[in-house]
Structure of Outer row dynein assembly 16:
Amino acid sequence: MLSGERVLTAAHDGTVKMWDVRTDTCVATVGRCSSAVLCMEYDDTSGILAAAGRDAVANIWDIRAGRQMHKLLGHTKWIRSIRMVGDTLITGSDDWTARVWTVSRGTCDAVLACHAGPLLCVEYSASDKGIITGSTDGLLRFWENDEEGIKCVKNVTIHTAPILSINAGEQWLGVGAADNSMSLFQRPQERLGVPNIGSKMSGWQLYRTPQKTNAVVRCVVSDLERKRICSGGRNGVLRLWEATINI
């Protein structure tokens, strides 16, 4: 994870270290977990670091102040995915649930429990404050927050293997899976400037059927300037896909 001239790395020894890319040296150990770290997120604006892994605990540090803020307890198995946007943190676990936390308070605001297997990826859609989760059950679930709380508003079963990566933009959504494919979703109402009077999260529609590759698609990210989507596979190959929709 890169922040300016510093890089953050997490390891199976439970540490999160900061490195200086100019000198290739470790300048600090900024966090310690009790077991292997499997995922982390860093907000360069606030200096807040979140890391989680095999101990089922999500740890929050203020690395600029040099202190640990919270240990978020609730999951009962490994935490494999984490996403932090502002004061909101989302964690996905092998206990088949995702949890939504408030970072500043260190409290759990919701438990999302509708999958039939471990959650391997979670994503936050900033444009509509929705959540997307992916699991070993091959399902993609869309969650929306309203006055009654967070509820699942849409299920998608386009992939035939575990969902490994989700990346959401303002008008598109990329998904990578263990069936060696990537799929792309869009919201046509948003693109055409038509107001969506219903559920925004349920407005996501499949734009392209899974694009086959030669290996499991481990990660999907966007290149907004060039309007491309990048997918990375287990075979070490990066692929750039042209996005014909306006992202």
